[in-house]
Design goal:
Layout lengths: L12 H20 L6 H18 L1 E5 L15 E5 L5 H35 E7 L8 E8 L2 E11 L7 E11 L23 H4 L3 E7 L5 H33 L1
Parallel strand pairs: 4-7
Antiparallel strand pairs: 1-2, 3-7, 4-5, 5-6
Length: 252
């Protein structure tokens, strides 16, 4: 559903109940299949949108193209817009639609949040080499799934110039059926995220993570999104800890 679905024509309570029901039925199927994204952040956005409509008579709009299903939606991606002119009856209908929809969406958000917590606990990030390169904001990780090992490069980058928001961008390098080796199991990467990644001497000095998971969740919709976020959080937290230790040494 689009963020302006509530006041798209016709503005009718019964009609919107059917629109919401159709959307929720699709989300429910995804949850039963343990698929976390894009529904988790979409429902969070719809809840925030309803609150804004009720409190300020405004709605949210995403100001950039969301390319991937798990692409992070941040505050800097959102703009608020005034509701279009409405007659009194339409305002009443929108109020009823919002109150009805919020409770249903909140229920499914809680289901997705519970799934997110289970997946997050099951995914483990293990740094294998070049831990001192934590400030480089780039590296490689590999993850096993369905008897294959998937190898990815990653880059932590700012989403927009002038904003502090960052995201973890990944690109698949190759799929192998044995243990990953930086030298022997590597192929040339076309249009890589990391410059010089095809050079072994450069590659061996990159951060390397091993990702493991205890459950067989869907790969693209669940495991990869959580992996991206855990790698970024690991690097951010490691940088903070490193800076804290340095500050303490300087104060002595």
């Amino acid at each position: 559903m689009e963020t302006n679905w509530i006041f798209q024509e016709p503005i009718d309570f019964e009609h919107k109940k059917y629109v919401l029901l159709d959307y929720i039925q699709k989300v429910d199927i995804q949850i039963k299949n343990l698929k976390l994204y894009p529904n988790f952040q979409q429902i969070a956005l719809h809840l925030a949108n309803i609150s804004l409509i009720l409190e300020k008579k405004q709605y949210l709009n995403i100001n950039r193209n969301i390319k991937a299903k798990d692409d992070e939606i941040l505050i800097s991606d959102l703009t608020s817009n005034d509701l279009p002119p409405l007659i009194e009856n339409e305002e009443i209908e929108i109020y009823n639609i919002c109150k009805y929809s919020y409770d249903i969406l909140k229920e499914f958000f809680n289901k997705l949040k519970a799934l997110w917590e289970i997946v997050n606990d099951s995914v483990l990030i293990e740094p294998l080499q070049n831990l001192k390169k934590i400030n480089s904001k780039e590296g490689i990780f590999f993850i096993k799934h369905n008897k294959n090992t998937y190898v990815y490069e990653f880059v932590i980058k700012k989403i927009k110039k002038g904003f502090v928001d960052t995201k973890c961008v990944i690109k698949k390098i190759c799929i192998i059926d044995s243990d990953f080796d930086l030298k022997n199991n590597f192929i040339n990467v076309k249009n890589p995220l990391i410059k010089n990644i095809n050079n072994f001497e450069y590659r061996k000095n990159l951060l390397l993570f091993k990702v493991t998971h205890t459950e067989q969740f869907p790969f693209k919709e669940t495991l990869l999104p959580i992996t991206k976020r855990k790698i970024m959080n690991y690097m951010v937290q490691s940088k903070i800890i490193k800076q804290t230790v340095l500050d303490k040494k300087l104060l002595k």
